[in-house]
Write a structure and sequence with these properties.
about 30% helix; Alpha-D-Glucose-1,6-Bisphosphate, Chain A, domain 4; 3 helices; alpha+beta; 7-stranded antiparallel beta sheet
Amino acid sequence: MLWSLMKWGLGLAVLAVALLTFTGEKTFRVEIDIPAPPEAVWAVLSDASGYKDWHPVFVNVEGRFEQGGTVKTTVREPGKDDVVITSDVVKVEPGKEINQFGGLRGFITFDHHWLLEPVGGGTRVIQNEVDRGFYVWFWASDWVEPAYAQANEALRKRVLETFEN
């Protein structure tokens, strides 16, 4: 009986180590200050159909950013074919946050947040994404933060074009 319990315990310990070893997590965070009020930034950011006009990574977004909704996003990764991903809109707080979640649990998931914070003379925009799953260990994701920084710059430009006009 004791030997059987020890084998089960050892088996569970090996399984736990394997799960910890093969389940990865990567966090990406970029931010930018835009000299415009949160409402002006929100107007651009929450307009899913307008992404194709300014966003260099999310080159097309179909759907609406409504809590409980779903959007299909065409993602452009440098040097690769575009990929369409579907995400659930987990949270929408007008003027403050859009949170999307998608992927295949255990393989790779993403939890992407656009966060807006009022700062002196404008709005701080933060993109924060946490990717989890087995595939994270094998995915060459070094392009993500630079691409998101480029997207933040494009957002800044778009907001200033629309806000100043």
